[in-house]
Amino acid sequence: MRGPIDPEQLLSPGMLKSANTLLTVCLAALAGMGIIHAIGHLFVGRPFTALLWAAGATAIPLTFWMIVRLLSESLAAQHALNERITLLNESLWGPDDEDWEEVDPTEVVETEEEKEEPSVKTDIEVEVEAETEPETEAEAEAEAEAEAEAEAEAEADKKPETKKKKDKS
Questions:
Q1: Which residue from 65, 68, 60 is spatially nearest to 38, judged by alpha carbons?
Q2: Residue 9: CB partners within 8 Å, gap ≥ 6?
Q3: CA spacing 20 to 30 A to 107: which of 78, 137, 138, 148?
Q4: Which of the four pLDDT bands, split at 50, 70 and 90, describes residue 153?
Q5: What is the pTM of this model?
Q6: Residue 10 in contact with residue 3, Cβ under 8 Å?
């Protein structure tokens, strides 16, 4: 998270803690005013309304406080983790590493592998089975008979369709 004044500087954990404290005080004041309002309803003689106001005055600010508190704790943990990683990087590579450079997260960088090989292969090899010549006369005759039978079946299938069409008209 960035600071409110200088967006280049990270938000310090101390500033986060003081903002969380200020929010806690404001929510406690809101809950206190709601409880006072509930006590006013109790003195007027509306106990059910007083109970609803007291429950709402404590539950709603408490819910907001819990959510903000959890988010601020996770932000502080991320900040501490970032500092630890920075220290580890400096201890491994040194504080003034010449190879270390800032990277723009919006910039697309291609690796050497992506430059060399396209992601989709364009040269597809298709294997075509070549028709083989029958080795013997018996095989040639068997193939000829099979082709003749297939043609006869195809013609037989066509003939009933034409008859049915003539019957319908």
A1: 60
A2: 2, 3
A3: 78
A4: confident
A5: 0.48
A6: yes
